[in-house]
Amino acid sequence: MNVLIVDDDAYVLEALTQKMDWESLGIENVYTAYNVKRAKRIVEDIPIHIIVCDIEMPKKNGFALLKWIRERNLIIQFIFLTSYAEFDYAKKAIELRSFAYCLKPIAYDELAGEIKRAVKAEQSALEAVNYEKIYTYWSDSEKNRKDMFWSRVCLNEDYYRDADELWQDAVKLGVGYDTADMFVPFAFRLHNYDHVVRELGRGMLEWTFRNIADEVFDTPTSCIQGFGRIQSMEWMVIIQQKDEARETIYGCAQEFCDKIRTHFKCDISCIMGNTAAIEGIGASWQDVSEVLFNNVVPVNEIYVVRNIDFSKDSYQPPDFTLWESFFNEDREQMLLEVVDDYINHLSVGGRHSKKVLHSFVMDCIQMISSELRQRNILLHSLGDGSCFETKKIAWAIQSFEDARKYLRDVIHISMESVRDNRENMSVVDQIKDYIDHNLEKDITRESLAELVYLNPDYLARIFKKEAGESLGAWLVRRRIERARELLEKTSDPVNTIALKVGYDNFSYFSKVFKDMVGVTPKEYRKSEDTRPSAAHNGIYKVK
Questions:
Q1: Helix or strand run (H / E) with residue 4
Q2: Is there a smaller number of Cβ atoms within 10 Å at the N or the C end of the chain?
Q3: Residue 541 predicted with pLDDT over 50
Q4: 219 DSSP assignment
């Protein structure tokens, strides 16, 4: 159900919108109006079920609004919320069949109780009449009939079987179009809108969005004919193009995007389709839809549909080895910079499919997940646990900016978790953790001491005391253990494995491996049945 709050006091509007738990009361959308004129516009555009209204307001008061509603036989539960306790006011409210009359200041739980009662009363009233009659007033509006028509044409592509059926419905709905009329389809998507939803609610946001569009596109050569929600924060807008006015409409779209950015303080994507007559607008919209759902749409600029074969876009993953090293060395800024650089590379030309961006985002998540798993940090434990929800990943690939913001957040939260985890480790455990994640590097006792801000000799003493073996022996053993894993689980050449575990001298690697394991790396790989365990715990100098 939808609620409309009418009050000229901005504080009251904000308090009731933000502090009431509307969802628990069965309310889907909350709309607000600061005067009767604005309230009437909302009621004309949207099915409203409950109105919470002040009485004394500039120009027309709450009684005038309720009288207007009663004259139109609208089924709306009306609650007066006023500072005035005069008997005449209460009497007038009763005469106009208001549902409740409450005095300010009212406790939120008391108002919640009245809303619950109003919801039940509205449900009973709706059940008592024919469903089609409930929305007779709303559906009789020319604007809403046109919205219905264009939603059927574009958003329900199977609704009309052929052109004859389309024109029959156009006549039935009385939309008044001609075969010569030309239209331009648009798709709009909001980004970074959470703060707007918190402030206005989704319903009020959409209503305001529509009204700004009506205002901007209402020119001598254009006007809105259809408006429909595609999905959350995505809308279809159909503009009628009069004469040769496509460039004018393009300019209006730029103005509209600027106004939305200013008004809502969020980003917006805009896709402009090809001009077409009614019978061709379905195909034109499909081109727009193809871009919206399969292409990465730029933010804060107009994307004009053109013929693009998204299947030709191919994904070339970055070298994640370097990225992993930045993660392990706690170089967050460097990691963020290479992520930014790669996204900038993807965005050149603006023609990459979402599949490409999705592959990149998922590979980044896989890299981070792997690094966290090695530290026994589970993904669900990061932040509020919602970082890797399917919904968040889906929104992360709507634009390059969304992907950038999402990955920056995930990287920061992940690396913060690693830092917190490291702070709870002993110095020796921190050294062990660093070695395990950086075996390919040139590790020295001095470089390890720098990590934990200790004297190299002192670090060597406490490491041997706690670990039971010297720092150099630990490093060599972990390198050879990792080499055995790679020999068993991969088909990488032995010299490649040597580099991966920190040996650039293949002969020296083979000698150390044989001293530790009892056979050479090549012999170890060939031995399928009996593989000897580490035969030695020899102590070697750190390279």
A1: strand 2-6
A2: C
A3: no
A4: B
- R_g of the chain computed on alpha carbons: 33
For the chain, the helix, strand and coil percentages under 3-state DSSP, each to the nearest 5: 55, 10, 30
As given in the structure block, the two tokens for residue 247 are: 């460039």
The rounded distance, in Å, linking the Cα atoms of 397 and 255 is 26
- Per DSSP, which regions of 171-317 are E strands? 182-191, 222-231, 234-241, 267-272, 276-277, 302-304
Q: What is the mean pLDDT of the chain?
A: 85
Residue listed under structure tokens 């470089």 = 447
Mean pLDDT of 95-114: 83
Burial of 410 per CB tally in 10 Å (0-12, 13-18, 19+): buried
- Alpha carbon dihedral 254, 225, 6, 110, in 10-degree steps, equals -100
Scan for tokens 């809502």, then name that residue.
264
Q: Quick one: which of 315, 368, 311 has its CA closest to 342? A: 315
Per-residue model confidence as pLDDT tens digits over 265-295: 999 999 999 999 999 999 999 999 988 888 8
d(CA 90, CA 153): 49
Q: What angle do CA 295, 298, 301 make, to 5 degrees?
A: 135
- Write the single-letter amino acid at 56: E
Residue 355 clears pLDDT 80, i.e. is over it: yes
Total-model pTM? 0.63
The predicted structure's pLDDT at residue 540: 35
Band (pLDDT 50/70/90 cuts) for residue 224 is very high
Return the closest-CA partner of residue 206 out of 224, 186, 230, 240.
230
The two structure tokens encoding residue 223? 């006007």
Distances (CA, A) of 377 to 240, 325, 422: 56, 18, 11
Select from 304, 301, 245, 225 the least CA-distant residue to 272. 304
Q: Point out which residues pair with 219 in neighbouring strands.
A: 222
Burial group, residue 58, by CB count within 10 angstroms (0-12, 13-18, 19+): exposed
pLDDT tier for residue 531 given thresholds of 50, 70 and 90: very low
Q: Residue 33: beta bridge partners?
A: 6
What distance in Å separates the CA atoms of residue 321 and residue 327, rounded to the nearest whole number? 10
**Strand pairing partners for 3?**
30, 50
Exposed / middle / buried, residue 515 (Cβ in 10 Å: 0-12, 13-18, 19+)? middle
How far is the C-alpha of 22 from the C-alpha of 14, rounded, in Å? 13
Question: Which has the closest alpha carbon to 82: 50, 104, 109?
Answer: 104
484 CB contacts (<8 Å, ≥6 apart)?
517, 524
In angstroms, the Cα distances linking 417 to 375, 404, 439, 440, 523 are 10, 20, 22, 24, 41
311: burial class by Cβ within 10 Å (0-12, 13-18, 19+)?
exposed
Q: Contact at 8 Å (CB) between 23 and 29?
A: no
Could you tell me the two tokens for 212?
A: 């700004």
Q: Summarize the confidence of residues 100-129 as an average pLDDT.
A: 83
* Residue among 72, 126, 62, 150 at smallest CA distance from 98: 62
